[in-house]
Amino acid sequence: MHTLRHATFADIPELCALLAQLFGQEVEFVADAATQARGLQRIFEAPDSGDILVLAEDDRPVGMVSLLYLTSTALGSRVALLEDMVVQPGQRGRGCGSRLLKAAVECARQRGCRRITLLTDGHNLDAQRFYRQHGFAVSDMKAMRLMLD
């Protein structure tokens, strides 16, 4: 039986393992447990900055999604950036991702967000199809990055 809950500090090792799976699929990121643990800890220490939801089996995370919060001047309100959506391979195809995503959308609504934005790899057609099935649409906006280190 899967339970949906907010992640805690105690989940950090399992969350880092999930992130390693996710970053193994993405071309722009490299898994580094210490770096990911530091990022997760920062979110936990500033709860107004984001939420991390997990789908757990026997209280161990088998999937996760992160929401980070910003203020949009275009909308004059809070918005969310959906990050780090991942489900263990053995749990896929069972509705786990849909359950996590629906919970993330509801969490963002409860936090007063008027928009959720996400990025997905251009070649990850399965992820793009999944998000479209849940109401997300391709934006004309183009992601650009400048690494500062």
Please name the defining characteristics of this protein.
alpha+beta, single chain, 149 residues, Aminopeptidase, 5-stranded mixed sheet
Structural class: alpha+beta
Number of helices: 4
Number of domains: 1
- Runs in which pLDDT lies below 50 for 5 or more consecutive residues are none
Instruction: Give the SSE order as H and E letters.
Output: EHHEEEHEH
Mean pLDDT: 93
Helix share of residues? 25-40%
Largest sheet properties:
5 strands, mixed
Through-space gap between termini: 43 Å
Query: Which second-level CATH architecture applies?
Result: 3-Layer(aba) Sandwich
Tell the overall outline. globular
CATH topology: Aminopeptidase
Strand order, biggest sheet? 1-2-3-4-5
CATH superfamily: Gcn5-related N-acetyltransferase (GNAT)
- Please report which band the strand proportion falls in: under 5%, 5-15%, 15-25%, 25-35%, 35-45% or over 45%: 25-35%
Radius of gyration in whole Å, from Cα?
A: 15 Å
Overall number of strands: 5
User: In CATH's first tier, which class applies?
Assistant: Alpha Beta
